[in-house]
Structure formats: structure tokens, C-alpha cells
TrEMBL record:
UniProt pathway annotation: Cell wall biogenesis; peptidoglycan biosynthesis
Keywords: Glycosyltransferase, Hydrolase, Membrane, Transferase, Transmembrane, Transmembrane helix
GO cellular component: outer membrane-bounded periplasmic space
Protein origin, superkingdom: Bacteria
Ranges for region Disordered: 1-25
PANTHER family (alphabetical): BINDING PROTEIN TRANSPEPTIDASE, PUTATIVE-RELATED, PEPTIDOGLYCAN GLYCOSYLTRANSFERASE
Protein name per Swiss-Prot or TrEMBL: Multimodular transpeptidase-transglycosylase
Matching InterPro entries: Glyco_trans_51 (IPR001264), Glycosyltr_51/Transpeptidase (IPR050396), Lysozyme-like_dom_sf (IPR023346), PBP_transglycosylase (IPR036950)
Gene3D superfamilies documented for this protein: Biosynthetic peptidoglycan transglycosylase-like
Length: 288
């Protein structure tokens, strides 16, 4: 076997046994080694910051929404999900997007309020903007991890904002049923349940007493969506549509089902007796 000549490599090394210095391009990372190290440091810091932010969000969720849930479950007005009629649950599932029930058409799915985010937004009253949106998304994801879909739906139905009276807001289907229909939520009909769920349709009715809207049309829309999803039968749809509209907040001065050409009557201004002119002080009316 011929020996390698001078300057030739033997087994990857020079014949002299000394390793030559590799070019910079062949080193780990090459000329971008410092940049890669910097990016790795930034990535570690971002992960650590995100972890710390999620820990803070979990603490906020526990001190706010989850604490309210624990307190509300001990109240006599808390209604367990198992005691609600099926059509009450189905009516709200038609207009609210949940993590486990996504059977709505695509055009409505983009407009439905998300159950977890809606709960977080109502309880924690987050400010609009990037910071509020980030907190809302983070706490909503933690809520979905902490509670099952059934418990989230039960919490939502007992906590959702459904208008207000003259003195206080109405939270939950129990108080809304008592205020608007004068009955327990367990005795609501299909049409009445669809009427309450219609408040959440966009644009949401925040104060029915102050801003009456087409509640009858909203009820019928929810019923037709429930029928389209297969939640109710043809007979149930017909019976619910024929129910009289019992939900009429503000009917004393502005009915919820007012026609499009409706306009309030002109106000009558009556002066106090002391400010009214006397008949003998008025100028005489010219005779024709």
C-alpha cells in the first residue's frame, strides 16, 4: 500500500497529526452563530414571560369568576343545569358558541358570542384594547381547562346579563324569567325560552326598558334557528310561533313590537297656574 504523500490527509487529519482550523462557515452556526444565540435567548425570555402571564391570569380568574361561581352555588337562586327544561338549554346553545357544541351554520358561528370569553368579559369588566383582549383570551382558555362544558354552560345560564330593571341589572335566567314572565325558569315555555335567548343575538339588547327592540322578531329567529339545527320539531316550531308574546318590557310607553312608522306623541307642556295668562289680559281677537 502506497504511503500518502506530503500534505495529504490520513483518516481526516494531516499526516503530521495536527488538525487544521476549520473555516468559519463550517463551524456550528457559522457566521450567524451570534444571531442564533440571541434569538434563543429572546425565545427563552418570551416563554418565561408567557408562563408568568398565564400564572397571573390564573390568579385573576380564581379571585374573580371562579370565586363568584363558588359563592353563587350556595345561593337559593342558583338553578342547576339538570333542573332546567331541555328547551331552555337548547335555546341558549343556539345563540352562544361553546367549546363542545358547534352545530351552527357558519354564518352564525362567526357572530355568536363565545361562552367562555363572554363570561370573563362580564365578570372582570376588562378594558377594550390589546391588553384587555389578551387577558380575555388567556382567562377564557384557562376557564375551558378548569371547567367542563356542562359546568361552563350552567355557570353561564346563572350569570349571563339579560337586561335590567329600574333599580338593578338582571343576571341569570332565574331572575330574567321572574322579571319578564313572572314565573320560575323551570316553567318557561319554548317560546319564552327563545325570547330570553333572543336578547343575546347581535346586536345585543343591553337595556330592554330603555331601548325597546323587536323582541318578537328575535324570538322567531331563535326558533327558526333551533328548527334548522334539528333541536325542535315542526310541531314544536308551529306551537311556539303561535304563542302570545308575553315579554313586553317598556310597553307602557314604547311597545317592543311597535311598527316601523311608530313615533311618540308630541309632549304637552302645562304651565303652572301662577304663570298662566289671565283671560282679560289677552288682546282681543279681531272679528272677521
Amino acid at each position: 500500500m502506497a504511503k500518502p504523500g506530503k500534505g495529504q490527509k490520513l483518516g481526516g487529519a494531516p499526516r503530521t497529526g495536527r488538525w487544521t482550523k476549520q473555516p468559519e462557515e463550517k463551524r456550528l452556526g457559522g457566521r450567524y452563530r451570534d444571531s442564533l444565540i440571541g434569538l434563543a435567548v429572546v425565545g427563552v425570555l418570551l416563554i418565561a414571560g408567557l408562563g408568568a402571564y398565564m400564572v397571573w391570569a390564573h390568579m385573576q380568574l380564581g379571585a374573580g369568576l371562579l370565586r363568584q361561581e363558588a359563592q353563587a352555588r350556595r345561593r337559593p337562586d342558583w338553578v342547576p343545569l339538570s333542573q332546567l327544561p331541555p328547551h331552555v338549554r337548547e335555546a341558549f346553545l343556539t345563540v352562544v358558541d361553546t367549546a363542545s357544541t358547534l352545530r351552527q351554520p357558519g354564518y352564525l358561528r362567526r357572530q355568536r358570542p363565545t361562552l367562555a370569553r363572554d363570561l370573563v368579559r362580564q365578570v372582570h369588566q376588562l378594558e377594550p384594547g390589546v391588553r384587555g383582549q389578551a387577558s380575555e383570551v388567556a382567562m377564557a382558555q384557562l376557564l375551558e381547562a378548569e371547567r367542563s362544558p356542562q359546568r361552563r354552560l350552567e355557570l353561564y345560564l346563572n350569570r349571563v346579563y339579560l337586561g335590567r330593571t329600574e333599580s338593578w341589572p338582571l343576571f341569570g335566567v332565574h331572575h330574567a324569567a321572574m322579571e319578564y314572565f313572572g314565573k320560575d325558569v323551570r316553567r318557561l315555555t319554548l317560546g319564552e325560552a327563545a325570547t330570553l335567548a333572543g336578547i343575546l343575538l347581535p346586536p345585543r339588547v343591553l337595556d330592554p326598558e330603555a331601548a325597546p327592540g323587536p323582541v318578537g322578531a328575535r324570538r322567531n329567529e331563535v326558533l327558526r334557528l333551533m328548527h334548522g339545527d334539528g333541536r325542535i320539531t315542526d310541531a314544536q316550531l308551529g306551537a311556539a310561533l303561535s304563542e302570545p308574546l308575553g315579554f313586553q318590557p317598556g310597553e307602557d310607553y314604547a311597545p317592543m313590537t311597535r311598527p316601523l312608522d311608530w313615533s311618540p306623541e308630541a309632549p304637552v307642556i302645562r304651565l303652572p297656574e301662577a304663570l298662566r295668562p289671565r283671560l282679560d289680559s289677552l288682546p282681543p281677537v279681531p272679528q272677521p
